[in-house]
Write a structure and sequence with these properties.
Elements (H helix, E strand, L loop, with lengths): L6 H18 L9 H15 L3 E8 L2 E9 L14 E3 L4 H14 L9 H4 L1 H6 L9 H5 L22 H14 L14 H15 L3 H13 L5 E2 L35 H4 L1 E4 H15 L8 H7 L13 E5 L4 E8 L5 E7 L4 E7 L4 H21 L3
Antiparallel strand pairs: 1-2, 1-9, 3-5, 4-5, 6-7, 7-8, 8-9
Length: about 375
């Protein structure tokens, strides 16, 4: 339940999705109502037997439309709403990268800042190749750190503060055997994002949760953004998580998620409308329009620094349907699934979420995203 989907696998599998998107054609300016979105999503939700499915269409002007269908928990008749919260899983990574970008702009960090510069005492007492790894390595999955600790995240030693837990995770990282030299090889790593989060905490003197709330969520008006599992324990007041088999997990609530130490990699939840605010900002930045950060920062965030198809929190592909560079990511805590595609040249993005994990959720979200793009194109035909 704590192991997240590997984006590299997602991108390889996504080659099939790109064929679907090509068939959908180029995205134009959306003009869809909530009823249109619901009508499009419901057959897909039913086909894949998901409890719920929600989607949104976004441009640089903001959220254009969204809709949600299905129920919060299988076996009940409590419908999801357009204002429900959704768990974003590894789509958190692009937000963490944006936070680092903000701290770089403030002069607290550089993209080339190394782990050793921030934690000299740890390096002194624990010699490791990790000392020379910088933020670009960590955020592009080129650090050489493994996907997760060999012993698992739940065994990270407890501490009084969440910053302390991330420092303990960093100490564990120094004991891990690198799977590649820094910059040499793409290895999708939640570990890398936790280390980057610890670096941000060290220079700013606040937790990652406090920092991302102050630097990203509040300026963008993402009032519903929070961390961890969703809903009041025992109550069906938000979408309830479901396993790959479609059955509800035993419990819900803030603690039913990846452990808190994994925050920078995969623990954000929010309303779909608030996720759209972050995506709108990324879209504006990609298009060179006024946005939260500087144009150069978005260029760095959205460009693979060592080649390949992963930038900083974004998978990157060039394709005809998007008019050029397209940004994408997917995330899951194995009980929920969320995905996003952004086409800056077409000034369009689509978001799709469900409260189920596993392969069926992946396929359904991909099909829903392709259908949304197809509908966008159709709505702009003469």
């Amino acid at each position: 339940m704590t192991r997240l989907l590997d984006l590299k696998r997602r991108l390889c599998w996504g080659s099939g999705a790109l064929l679907i998107f090509c068939a959908a054609g180029s995205a134009g300016k959306p003009d869809q109502s909530a009823d249109d979105i619901r009508g499009l999503l419901e057959p897909i939700r039913a086909e894949y037997r998901l409890p719920a499915l929600a989607g949104a269409v976004v441009t640089s002007r903001g959220l254009q439309s969204l809709g949600a269908v299905g129920v919060r928990k299988a076996g009940t008749e409590i419908s999801v709403t357009d204002g429900d919260l959704w768990h974003l899983g590894s789509d958190t990574k692009a937000m963490t990268a944006a936070l680092i970008g903000s701290l770089v702009e403030k002069g607290l960090l550089r993209w080339e800042t190394t782990v050793g510069e921030i934690f000299p005492e740890l390096v002194k007492n624990n010699p490791s190749p990790l000392a020379g790894i910088n933020l670009l390595h960590l955020l592009s999955h080129r650090s050489g750190l493994p996907h997760d600790p060999a012993s698992g995240w739940w065994l990270v030693p407890r501490a009084d503060t969440i910053q302390g837990r991330r420092l303990n995770a960093l100490a564990m990282a120094f004991k891990e055997k690198p799977v590649a030299a820094p910059g040499e090889k793409y290895v999708y790593s939640n570990f890398g994002y936790v280390v980057a989060g610890a670096m941000a905490e060290q220079v700013a003197g606040s937790s990652w949760e406090e920092l991302i709330s102050a630097e990203i969520f509040k300026p963008l008006g993402m009032q519903s953004a929070g961390f961890g599992g969703i809903g009041t324990p025992g109550e069906i007041d938000q979408p309830w998580g479901h396993g790959a088999d479609g059955k509800p997990v035993l419990r819900n609530g803030p603690d039913i998620d990846n452990p808190p130490v994994l925050g920078p990699a995969a623990r954000v939840h929010c309303k779909l409308a608030d996720w759209a605010k972050f995506i709108t900002d990324q879209l504006r930045g990609a298009r060179g329009e006024p946005a939260l950060l500087k144009p150069e920062t978005y260029r760095i965030l959205q460009t693979p620094p060592f080649g390949g198809d992963y930038a900083l929190g974004w998978g990157v592909v060039d394709h005809e349907w998007g008019g050029g560079k397209v940004l994408t990511h997917a995330g899951s805590n194995m009980m929920n699934y969320a995905m996003v595609w952004i086409a800056p040249q077409k000034d369009s993005a689509v978001l799709v979420v469900t409260n189920q994990g596993g392969p069926a959720a992946e396929r359904a979200c991909d099909k829903a995203a392709a259908a949304l793009i197809s509908r966008i194109r159709g709505s702009n035909r003469p």
